[in-house]
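Hi all, long-time lurker, first post. I run a small reading group and we've been trying to get comfortable going from sequence to structure in the token notation. Rather than ask abstract questions, I figured I'd post a concrete chain and ask someone more experienced to write out its structure so we can walk through it together at our next meeting. Sequence below, copied exactly:
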Amino acid sequence: MTLTLGFSPCPNDTFIFDALVNHRIDTEGLVFDVRLEDVQTLNEWAIEGKLDFSKISYGVLPLLVDQYQLLQSGGALGRGVGPLLITKNPTDDWLSSINQWKIGIPGKNTTAHMLFSLAFPGATNKQFMVFHEIEKAVLDGRVDAGVIIHENRFTYRQKGLHKLIDLGEYWEQQTQTPIPLGGIVAHKRIDAAIALKVDRLIRKSLEYAFAAAPHLAEYVKMHSQEMSPEVMQQHIDLYVNDFSLALGADGKKAVSKLFEVYDKLNNTNSIRHLDIVA
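-- Answer (accepted) --
Happy to help. Here is the structure in token form:
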């Protein structure tokens, strides 16, 4: 049986899925047609119902509950892992002027956008772009500040940029929960037994990767050639943790809180039932 599966080429995702998609573990008769794309593209595809299984930003999950169910494994949640708001020329009065700034955001439906909007609801002059373009946009002056994610957390200082606020820390202070960055979803057209099997296989794939650590698989390096091995490992260490093995009670609480924040930011009061594979 062949299933479509989308995830990003970032080290945390390729680390998690390497053993699964490259048959380093027994996939129990399942074959995966892999689509490697940036997370905003995956978010848009999920809204369209394009793939059987996909990595998505938790920020888009409220729009997907009718089509998809959430898997327990393969996601990115945690503490101290949130996006950063950075700028080229920080000033002491930046808080009073940020509502007039143009802000680079890594995709409309990303969790990073939601966290920024939670912290700065009056800052509405936003430019949505692919996450790896944001540092350059700030350096070139095309935006006054930018929200950075992924490996850019480890490189912005080297480029002369400055952190204004850790949006993840703000989330944690406001909600008392871990930061739900990205999860894996299964389309509801997929049989429940198959979705459960894939969930179990993703966990098995990650356990294989943990057992091989700190060795970096060629699959990880192949898709992250612009990064040094040190940055790849930092990326994995930051975003892959016990929540990637299973959501657990704290992870589910964080996702529930995200739905509350989504409703607050979008002036909705809808009751959504999120299906989680179990």
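A couple of things your group might point at:
The longest strand covers residues 179-187.
The two ends are 21 Å apart (CA to CA).
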